[in-house]
Amino acid sequence: MSKENILSEPSVIRHDWLIDEVIHLLTRPLFDVIFSAQGIHRAHFKANQVQLSTLLNIKTGTCSEDCGYCSQSARFKTSIESQPLMALKEVVAAAKEAKAKGATRFCMGAAWRSPKRQDFDKVLEIVKSVKSLGLETCMTLGLLDLEQAEQLKVAGLDYYNHNLDTSAAYYKQITSTHTYQDRLDTLANVRDAHLKVCCGGIFGMGESLEDRAALLQTLANLPIHPDSVPINKLIPIAGTPLAKSEKPDPFDMVRCIAAARILMPTSYIRLSAGRTEMSDELQALCFLAGANSIFYGEKLLTTDNPGVEQDMKLFKRLGIETMSTTD
Ligand code: SF4
Questions:
Q1: Which numbered atom of ligand 1 lies nearest the CA of 71?
Q2: What is the reported pTM?
Q3: Is residue 172 a part of any domain in this protein?
Q4: For the chain, how many structural domains are there in total?
Q5: Is 256 a catalytic residue?
Q6: I want to staple 228 with a disulfide (CB 3.0 to 4.6 A). Which of 24, 139, 198, 282 is the partner?
Q7: How high is the pLDDT of residue 267?
Q8: Which atom of ligand 1 is nearest to the CA of 109?
């Protein structure tokens, strides 16, 4: 089989991708890689369907870590207002509202290096209550050990989000307070606890083509492909070290999505942060390249997201239906 055929063969699920193969995907003519990705997408998913997730920050700011893109680090002077862990009833009210607006998954984020004992019991109560509303539950709480991951599973958590952000080589330029291996270890604990994994990266942090390829290769070569792969575009935030990052070529974002679809054919590829800066036409290209999930709702942790009505209008114009469930 030729190299082109291997790279676009829908039935092959691989965990042994070579870096040269991923670079090849990211540098093919744009329409060729989109064409391959859409074919693979249709072999594994219904066409013209997008899954909706809603994201709520349940604890904001004062994080001990120094991730260079993040407004919530205590080390940077940004304009966000810190907020301690939200009360259970406030989270439940937000989850009910998200469900009423069509979300099938409710994702909750807390700005921690890792959850502390006194907060963790409250987090478990939140998971139980949101799950009892009939929503899929997802959390992002930072680094987890195996015991914490298992307790979250028992409480009813479906997904755990923990992004690798970029390549192992470039990660040191982004964060100094924890390592890439720390993140890989958390992903292993989450998998071992039989939670579904949501793991992706951020595009536009000054990384090279090789870094983008290495991130996608690492994701695709995990023992199990992440169930959801968020592809974020950096939102430069005043006060953070990456505030002045150069804007990447938007077509390269489309290439990353198409490559992610080809490398991880059965994963939900989520077009995540950065949609407010994207035209409708660019978002349409991302869906054509295999993105089939979005974050839905006006806020994305601490940054803006397109309004619900705006998303619905775009879906109508594109003939896209929303999925009622991801199972
Ligand atoms: S660990 Fe999370 S919340 Fe803390 S600085 Fe890094 S990205 Fe932000």
A1: 8
A2: 0.89
A3: yes
A4: 1
A5: no
A6: 198
A7: 96
A8: 3
